[in-house]
Amino acid sequence: MARSALETMAMSQLAWWLVAVLALACVALLGLLRQRRGAPGREPAERREAPAAAAVEPRTSRPEPGSVPGGGLAPLPGPAASPRSPVAALVTPPAVRLPATLVASRARRYELRDAGAEPALTLERAGAVEWRQALPLSATPMQREALSAILAHAPLLAVLGSGDADLYRLSLRAGAALPLARGELAASSLRVVPAQSLDANRAAAVAAVVMALHCAPVYLRSQRQEVAAIQAEAAEWLRLSSPEDERLRALLQELSRYLREVEENHAGAVRKPVFVARVADFGAQTEAQWRAAADGASAQRLRVEQALAGLPEAEADWLARVQAYALRQRVACHAARMLAAWHGLRLALGEAVPAATLVLHAALQAQRAANRDDAGMARGAATRGWAWPLAPEPGLRAERSLAAVLQAIEAGFAGESSLALLVRLDSLGQVCELRSPPLAD
To answer: I need a labelling partner for 72 at 20 to 30 A (CA). Which of 49, 55, 297, 411 fits?
Structure first.
């Protein structure tokens, strides 16, 4: 009995303590809720001390329905708002304010700027009329890939009313193509407007491609025809020439090889300083060979002139002297054409060196003098009735080649002017067609 009484007392004490702890927890929770909602004890004192008479209106002061002006019923008070649960105030998520949508206007063109007043490179949309008036250009897959890389963000340009969605115009400032292609304008010094619209690291390759597409048709097409003609006409004298002409033979082979490399990758050759320097060195070697060949032809020409001024009995030795002179004269003429071809190839690489005009002027004057002497000796031989087997065509061809290259150098490198390229992109953003815009008047 005593043991059961003790257990009953312990259970009652434990229950009492549990009730006390729950009461304390409820008081604490109630205090937190009142702090969040604002305690009623913080109301102004004048509101708490308001007289009860002011709060309760007498029944006689309420207007009757008939006393309302206009004979209508007084509006009934609206339904009281349902009290908000304190727990709902804690668990309700805060209102989320969505950010305002920003609408940025598209740029009309992309620019790659350096220290100059005008941008070095610009990209903008082109019109259909300009596209129809332009001349088609043929490009290699490598050139198309280089252009496609820098036109990655071109579709984001603003569409003009007169422009097509897939036509673009890529322009280079006058005098900027060659320095940009050779890396003389470092990518770190270039500024893109708008930011990240163009890749400055690809600007050198693109400038070289644009310059190659414009300059290759101007220089390389005629250059290949000239070198092929020299090789075909030189086969005879190369077979009969002396050992001292072996270096000239090697230079002719190098000329054909270097020209082929420029034809296959003009954009890459322009960007190789070592390649350009080698072309200049071969031009200097060809100049030395031309001088030696011209001196040899002059010596043989002097022997022919002496025969013409001698006695009629010199006719026996005439044919041998004329044939020896004809061989050396042919070698000198082809050496002059090779000299012009090397300087033409150097010009195609952007090396319009003024010093080269001095050499070509000297060669042109010497060739004209030789042509005049040949014409005089032909008339002298005809007066005596002697045979003259030399044709004037080799000398005239050499004169025309020297004059053409000299005129091209004096006109300046075509890549120094402002260059533009019209591009059409396909649905994948790749270059599918290229054209050259018409030149401005």
So the answer is: 55
